[in-house]
Design brief:
Length: about 375
């Protein structure tokens, strides 16, 4: 494995960091407090090409690898984890599902529009009674002549109310044969309704909504992949998504660390660092430990990305990266709020935002427990 990212990836990283510092960081606190989807930022993301990062150029994307996607998402996660989730779910779930499992006609119809930002993408698997156990979804697709009719509800769909293109999962197997099939639908389709928009504790500027499917009629050409084959397809997409989510979590931990370093440097006396000290202080220990663990989590994330880019098995490593990075982001943001003291809990301080955002990243695209389950299966049955 090459540790040197190379000049092109380093230039990309620098460009995105500068873009974030200029366009995203200054508005992140305000967008979080408002809790509404920032369309102006979405337009800027599109202008930067960030809505088609790994899609091949023939579909209007940047044609970059997953390692580059991770670099972009770490920068976005450091700047505003809500914007990072928009980019991650649009690229990593919706567009990637259509790219990996769609037919050529579907790719030509949807991917250039997604890559240009003409429409945002959503990927709707989770239901009120089915999250970790995705095979138990209740949304049903029944044959209707040559096409299908879908009925059911989805919850916690990122971009649920703002997307133009939706990948939706439904059960098509009979009793005792719980097969899932994926469908692509467009905003405005009769029977595709948007329900409650979630008021989340964190990642508040990311749109999260319920979807209600009431006799949503779709032609046969809107089936994505094989009828009955979508469970496996969804798991493949989620495995890759976990690498991307891990990169965002590394970015959140980095944001917290930078906040902590700024604070300690600004007020060294508060931390016993205004006089030479022979021993390790609480602040030094906290910052050093987080810095070391960020590097460890990033290396795990880049290893998983490298495996994915190399066409090698990567599911176990993706789960390890998500588990370690997600837990690190939670730990780092908690400790930095502690380090800052009462001001860290003020809504004026970004520290508390990082803390609230980190929690939801531990849950989305498979909770820490689900990652432990995946890793333990590899250990015990692999
Ligand atoms: C911000 C955010 C955005 C999201 N965006 C999307 C999206 O765009 N599309 C989409 O389809 N979904 C989305 N989700 C849903 C997300 O993937 C689910 O919340 C997640 O998979 C967990 O499912 P659940 O909420 O139903 O929890 P449950 O599955 O009910 O789990 C509840 C608890 O039980 C634990 N648990 C469950 N099963 C096991 C087990 N077998 N062993 C041990 N512990 C277990 C879990 O770890 C968790 O702690 C999003 C979630 C969040 C928070």
């Amino acid at each position: 494995m090459e540790f040197d990212l190379g000049p092109e990836r380093l230039a990309l990283q620098k460009r995105i960091r500068e873009f974030c510092d200029a366009e995203i960081v200054p508005r992140a606190q305000e967008n979080d407090l408002k809790g509404t989807f920032p369309w102006d930022v979405a337009k800027k993301l599109a202008r930067e090409g960030l809505l088609g990062i790994v899609l091949p150029r023939e579909y209007g994307g940047l044609g970059l690898d997953v390692l580059s996607l991770c670099l972009v998402l770490e920068e976005l996660g450091r700047a505003d984890a809500a914007i990072a989730l928009t980019v991650e779910s649009h690229n990593g779930l919706c567009a990637n599902h259509l790219f990996l499992h769609g037919d050529e006609e579907q790719k030509r119809r949807y991917l250039p529009r997604l890559a240009s930002g003409e429409v945002l993408g959503a990927w709707a698997l989770t239901e009120p009674g089915a999250g970790s156990d995705a095979a138990s979804i209740k949304t049903r697709a029944s044959r209707n002549g040559d096409g299908w009719v879908l009925n059911g509800s989805k919850t916690f769909t990122t971009q649920g109310s703002v997307a133009g293109v939706y990948v939706i999962f439904a059960k098509t197997g009979g009793n005792g044969k719980p097969e899932l099939t994926a469908f692509v639908a467009e905003k405005g389709a009769a029977g595709l309704g948007v329900g409650k928009i979630e008021k989340k504790m964190g990642i508040r500027a990311s749109d999260t909504a319920q979807l209600h499917l009431h006799d949503l009629r779709l032609p046969a050409e809107n089936v994505v992949g094989r009828v009955g084959g979508a469970f496996k397809d969804a798991m493949r997409v989620l495995d890759a998504g976990r690498v991307a989510i891990a990169a965002v979590s590394v970015g959140i931990a980095r944001a917290a660390l930078e906040e902590g370093v700024r604070r300690v440097k600004a007020r060294p006396g508060d931390y016993g660092l205004d006089v030479p000290s022979p021993g390790l202080t609480y602040a030094q220990k906290t910052l050093a430990q987080i810095a070391a663990e960020i590097d460890a989590a990033r290396l795990l994330t880049h290893r998983a990305a490298w495996l994915l880019d190399s066409g090698k098995p990567f599911a176990r490593e993706a789960s390890m990266a998500k588990l370690v990075s997600g837990d690190l982001a939670m730990k780092a943001t908690t400790e930095i709020v502690d380090l800052i003291g009462p001001e860290g809990g003020s809504l004026d301080s970004p520290g508390q935002r990082f803390f609230r955002d980190a929690k939801l990243y531990q849950i989305g695209e498979g909770s820490s427990q689900i990652q432990q389950l995946v890793i333990s299966r590899h250990l015990l049955h692999g």
